[in-house]
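ok so I'm stuck.
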Amino acid sequence: MNEQEFYRAMTARYSALSGFVPDEASDIALRFHALAGELADFSARLDEAARQSDPLTAKGEALDALAALRGISRRPAAHAAGELTFTRAPGTAGEVPIPAGTACAAPDGRVYLTTDAGSIPAGETSATLAARAALAGRGGNAAAGSVTL
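replied:
not stuck anymore, here's the structure
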């Protein structure tokens, strides 16, 4: 319940018991408003405690604690992995080396690193190398073809 719902419930109960409807400027109405605010805050905290004590709705540290009670732990975030295709710049001759750890980026600034060294052989126009996101977790995912820098 929110503050107004608590206040209405208290004034309705008070009126039923006393036969008197408190005036908004009366001492009892001010006390009801103060108590209704505290009850609404306490109710919200109870709701949050109920959510955090249920494995289906708990988040963050509360979910980790519930899992630990059952001998389960959260896996660390993994790095997205895939392949990057490098294209030879026009007019470049010979083999073009691509060191392991070469940084590439998507236009939004997310960075991806080659995991192995490779090269574009002389006479070829491109080479594809394994790569992974610099950032672990969902934030490192990229759509195919979006890593262009």
